[in-house]
Specification:
With about 290 residues, the chain is an alpha+beta fold. The protein has one domain: Hotdog Thioesterase (Thiol Ester Dehydrase, Chain A, Roll). The chain is built from 6 helices and 10 strands; from the N terminus they run αβααβββββαααββββ. β4 and β5 form a beta hairpin.
Length: about 290
């Protein structure tokens, strides 16, 4: 299959209007691993909808709001769906998400990069999340998907910007997060039903021994770990986050988030000692400080 560049650049990703409830906000936080300690009242603020006015929203929930589905795998994009990987993700928060509401998600293709015949292509896209009634902008998401070995279609040869360079000194803050064997099946109920995360046959066709955990789920896990390590569990302190997906996580593995006080971070799977999130950086508005308690 040859990629149709003009079609991909102009691809009409549908606008999404979505209502969500306080229960969905709580479920999202649970699906990223929050609430595993029933005595941790700071996490209960995110996973208990009975807290009403006190309920808070994990900022990375912006990743699943106004989501148009994994549109790149649709046949009319002319992209091979078995050779797509999520390369990088960035979220910039303009406002704090409320526990419930109605939003509009608008997604557009920014550019399509071509590294040449037999090499990778890359699709850079952007999604904005706005309040459906006031028009208030909650978040801007920028992502790059890698089209493995699908280059040579005449796209933009200009390289993407260099990734954030991590400090050469050892990490200053470390926390380990357990994933559950069924976590991908739970997380996909947030809206990403791509078969790679549930169907063993699809996983094998994509080169994996078994279904993998969503990269977005791992990003959510890193977000709540960093929010605690660097922002005192305060969502309003979160300004932006960016990261690169470097390897897959299998449900049931342990993710270790390694961070520096300047906001740099990475994450690795403990069991395989493999880095799965790399070149990460978190910007915060006010440093609340503090070790993970």
């Amino acid at each position: 299959m040859t990629i149709d560049l003009a079609r991909l650049l102009a691809y009409p990703v549908p606008e999404v209007r979505q209502k969500y409830t306080s229960h969905q906000s709580a479920f999202y936080a649970l699906s990223t691993g929050m609430g595993q300690d029933p005595l941790d009242e700071r996490h209960l603020d995110f996973v208990d909808p009975n807290r009403e006015a006190a309920q808070r929203v994990l900022p990375s929930m912006a990743l699943v709001l106004g989501y148009p589905g994994f549109w790149l795998v649709r046949p009319d994009t002319t992209v091979d769906p078995t050779r797509i990987l999520h390369g990088t993700q960035e979220v910039e928060w303009q406002s704090t998400l409320p526990p419930s509401g109605e939003v509009i998600g608008r997604t557009r293709v920014v550019r399509v990069v071509d590294r040449g015949e037999g090499k990778h292509g890359m699709v850079e896209s952007e999604r904005t999340i706005l309040d459906a009634h006031s028009g208030e902008l909650y978040a801007t998401l920028r992502q790059v998907h890698v089209l493995r070995g699908q280059g040579g279609f005449g796209g933009d040869p200009t390289p993407l910007p260099s990734a954030h360079a991590l400090p050469e000194r050892p990490p200053e803050l470390v926390v380990e997060l357990a994933t559950r064997p069924e976590q991908a099946l739970l997380y996909r109920l947030n809206g990403d039903l791509f078969a790679l995360h549930a169907d063993p046959a699809m996983a094998r066709r994509s080169g994996f021994a078994r279904p993998i955990l969503h990269g977005m789920c791992v990003a959510g896990m890193a977000t709540h770990a960093l929010m605690r390590l660097l922002a005192g569990d305060e969502p309003s302190c979160m300004q932006s986050i960016k990261l690169r997906f470097s390897a897959a996580v299998f449900p049931g593995e342990t993710v270790r988030v390694e961070a520096w006080r300047d906001g740099s971070f990475r994450a690795r799977v403990v069991e395989r000692n493999e880095v799965v999130l790399d070149n990460g950086h978190l910007n915060i508005k006010t440093i609340a400080g503090g070790e993970l308690a």
